[in-house]
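Q: I'm writing up a methods section and want to include an example of the input and output format. Could you take the sequence below and give the corresponding predicted structure tokens, formatted cleanly so I can copy it straight into the document?
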Amino acid sequence: MQAETGPHRRVVVGVDGSPASHAALRWAVDYARMAGAHVEAVAAYDVPGATGWSAPAVDADLDAEQARTMLSSEISTGLGTAPDVPVEEHVVRGNAAQALIAASEGAELLAVGNRGRGGFARLLLGSVSQQCALHASCPVVILRAPEEASEAADA
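A: Here is the clean output for your methods example:
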């Protein structure tokens, strides 16, 4: 499917609270500003034990509310209280990679953070960013946290 054009252009960004997702959020807003698009910030959450026997029953509504609160907080922290680009907040229950891949349908671009950890692992893609790069319906930009990017350049 082709990316939308005109007033409905959109950029999707995955937000999970990590420094790399903060970088992706800021990058997505900067790109959307230049492209005349709006941003759809997507946060995914999962309910432990929702399927199978792995955990005791939990309150899914409480988890959804916590995810909404986290997303709003992350946007405020990353962008300030009044970003100059429209940012829509979407909280999705389920696997983060699947939620972002679904949200990429018809988007101009998908931005995600890379959450690889320490040493050699820092050079690899995280599982969510890798799945998005392989399966998204639009171009994908994968960003590192600013301190990770400078550490990788020094290596």
